Amino acid sequence: MDDEEEEFIPPPPPPGPPPLLREDQLLHLARQGWLFLELPDALSQSMTDLLRHSSQYFDAPDIEKKELYPSKLGTEFGYYPIAEEKEYITLRCRIHTDPNAKAKPAAKLAASLEASTVDAWHHAGVLLWRILCDIARASDLDVSVWNDILDGTLDMPDSEDQLTYALMRLFRYFPSTGHAEEHTDLGLLTLCIGDGTGLQVLDRFNSDQKPAWVDGPVGTHTATVLVGQTLRALSARTMTAGAHRVVGNSQGRQSVVFALRHSTRHDVDFSLFGGEGKLHPTELWKTIQAGKVNINTEKEKRDAQRARFRTTRPGAEAEALEHATRGQG
Ligand SMILES: O=C(O)CCC(=O)C(=O)O
Ligand SMILES: [Fe+2]
């Protein structure tokens, strides 16, 4: 008889980052399209720093804010004020790198704003990547399905020629009148934190008679994670895009929104997700954006977008009502 013991070979560790969400959290995110999530200390700290720098930036004179970050690409880049509602800045890559000692105070302000954005972007990117890996594992997909889609998105790009669709957006809502209409975001996942009440998410399962809005968490310890339209599309609509809005609050509110969106570097291969075909990243973006109203543009433009949408797509109103508006996620 062979008494030699069989050598024990431990199973290889699961690929990718360690799991983050519990099963019930993952299910909640998939079904509702949103989840309140306690943040790791490092991320919470960098969000606190970013809110502080963002506050310094918004306190600067309008002319300075515009000069530092002129808006372009519609609402997709730079400083954008909306009268009586809010002002916000969209950061998609580094603009003002470390200034020398003689630099103007405004340039120093921008450089430190960006330094804290780089930090928050990195930590938020890792967190959302871990959630995407949890989603892949729960769907029996390899975590590598995200490699091309996330290429260049998990850290803030160093320069404009490395832009992806991902962004960090900093908001200041005016007291009482500051708001954002109901919408779903466009990207994969969005992470929102705010220093006051106002963000509300829709409880789809209790909204039969009238919409049941749930207040999002306040402060930098807990975030709201939202599923966006791109992730919904990749999941063959098994995941819901989370409907949300911002309502006015008498104190006003500042928020940080990190929108993880797909990379511009590779075609998006739906077959990796059990679907069919490949789409150029720009084509995917256009498809996702089609027929959506940008809730972060001026009110007149939003109304015009709605009117155009109604006349060019008769009968689309019911669908438009479901996902009529979009934010930046
Ligand atoms: O300010 C926030 O917390 C969220 C804003 C938002 O949803 C959006 O602009 O898409
Ligand atoms: Fe949003």
From TrEMBL:
UniProt-listed Pfam families: 2OG-FeII_Oxy
Sequence ranges of Basic and acidic residues compositional bias: 320-329
Keyword vocabulary terms for this entry: Iron, Metal-binding, Oxidoreductase
Record keyword Iron present: yes
Gene Ontology molecular functions: metal ion binding; oxidoreductase activity
Superkingdom: Eukaryota
Domain named Fe2OG dioxygenase: residues: 164-262
Region (Disordered): 299-329
PANTHER family named in the record: 2-OXOGLUTARATE (2OG) AND FE(II)-DEPENDENT OXYGENASE SUPERFAMILY PROTEIN-RELATED
Similarity comment text for this entry: Belongs to the iron/ascorbate-dependent oxidoreductase family.
Protein name: Fe2OG dioxygenase domain-containing protein
Natural source organism: Capronia epimyces CBS 606.96
